[in-house]
Design goal:
0% of the residues lie in helices and 60% in strands. The protein has 283 residues and is mainly β. It is globular and about 60 Å long.
């Protein structure tokens, strides 16, 4: 409860009604006048303060057999007042996910994931120069393979497709394919992790995010956009028992542009490189 009378509720329940089945329900209600310095919370707008949102999340996960597991959730929400890029009160949206996970052995895992999202947003009709609020629809399909032949090597392959339709312009789409390889030397003093990705994403609305390994206490989740490739290599080296070194090099190549970035980050070519070095000493 904030000083101005704004309120927020977050409550839920989780249960295992039978072996192999897990249920979870979360209800949230953040008043439009609720004020907080706490930052993000469970909800659709996880990157802003919890306010102006009423939603219900329900998830179920069940095991068909010891090798196959199915995960599902649906999240329905309502905005009682205007929000960023939503110039209209009383709008609704929903988010659905369906995933199959197949693990035939301890060394191999495969999962496929489909996600569909419908969210309100301002839409400008170029022919009429009128701004309206409509629900855009974004869907994505992911295929992910992981293989660990032994304690030293790790392989992961992923393909992901994205489709965006705002009901006004043409369908926007894109894809990303990447291969991850990890190797840990038998001495356990050096660990290498790398990725090579190719992508073709025609519009920012269809962008695809993918987590990347990074130096300690840092994280990288770049958005793949445009047409090109991206690669990175991360090395962790244990110099001594209390001294660790991380080295990371990444490069993005865009074949659809001639100048990379804008403003102070503008580069006079279509490549951008990143270098990180981190040293940790423990006392």
């Amino acid at each position: 409860l904030s000083d101005n009378g704004g309120y927020a509720f977050l409550h839920g329940i989780s249960a295992r009604p039978t072996p192999g089945i897990s249920l979870s329900i979360v209800h949230r209600l953040y008043a439009k006048n609720y004020q907080t310095l706490a930052g993000s919370a469970f909800g659709e707008t996880t990157n802003t303060n919890p306010t102006n949102e009423h939603g219900l999340y329900a998830g179920v996960s069940f095991t068909i057999n010891p090798k196959i597991r199915v995960n599902n959730y649906v999240d329905i929400y309502h905005f009682s007042w205007m929000k960023y890029r939503i110039d209209k009160a009383n709008t609704n949206g929903y988010d659905i996910l369906h995933e199959w996970n197949f693990r035939p052995s301890r060394r191999f895992e495969f999962y496929t994931r489909f996600r569909f999202k419908s969210n309100p947003r301002n839409i400008t009709r170029t022919t009429e120069s009128i701004t309206d609020v409509k629900n855009y629809k974004k869907s994505s399909l992911r295929l992910n393979f992981s293989y660990k032949p032994n304690s030293n090597w790790t392989f992961k392959t992923r393909g992901e497709w994205s489709f965006f339709n705002d009901g006004v312009s043409t369908l926007k789409k894109g894809y990303v394919f990447y291969q991850d390889i990890g190797y840990q030397f038998p001495s356990r003093k050096v660990t290498l992790q790398g990725r090579y990705a190719v992508f073709n994403v025609g519009d920012y609305d269809a962008r695809i995010y993918a987590f990347e390994n990074d130096v300690l206490y840092a994280f990288s989740i770049p958005a793949y956009l445009g047409r090109g490739s991206r690669a990175y290599l991360l090395a962790k080296i244990r110099l001594q028992r209390r001294l660790d070194l991380w080295l990371r090099y990444a490069q993005t190549f865009r074949s659809d542009i001639e100048i990379f970035g804008s403003g102070l980050e503008e580069l006079p070519n279509n490549r951008r490189s990143e270098i990180k070095i981190q040293l940790r000493a423990r006392f």
